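Bumping with the actual sequence this time:
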Amino acid sequence: MSLSRQTMTSSPSSKLSFASKHLSGGSSSRLRLTSMLALLNGRGSVAFRTGKSGFKVPRYQNTYQLHSSNPFSHNVVDKIVVNVMTEYLTDIKYNPIVCLKLCQNMAMEIRKQIYKKDFTR
């Protein structure tokens, strides 16, 4: 299977037609077709790119941090819970219907205030 200079410099659609003409058959030819297309497209590795100096440069750098920028603080959450409970539960007598709705509102308020603190872990 020899490639002429014209085939090497032609457009991607003609490269595809060249590959499909010369590679026909079963599933093994599909593998050859995809590998041939990868070579013809000139696309290298997904994880690395080649820099100007010819060395491999990683496309994606590690972003994992060992320590949190804003760690979870249980003391802050305890203060939020105490403040919300004292705000909602002062002068309240137990009524099953009212208390059900009250608990839902307290939970929403606590969650909202904790989300505002923007703890990262």
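The tokens above came from a reply further down the thread. Confidence is low (pLDDT under 50) at residues 4-8.
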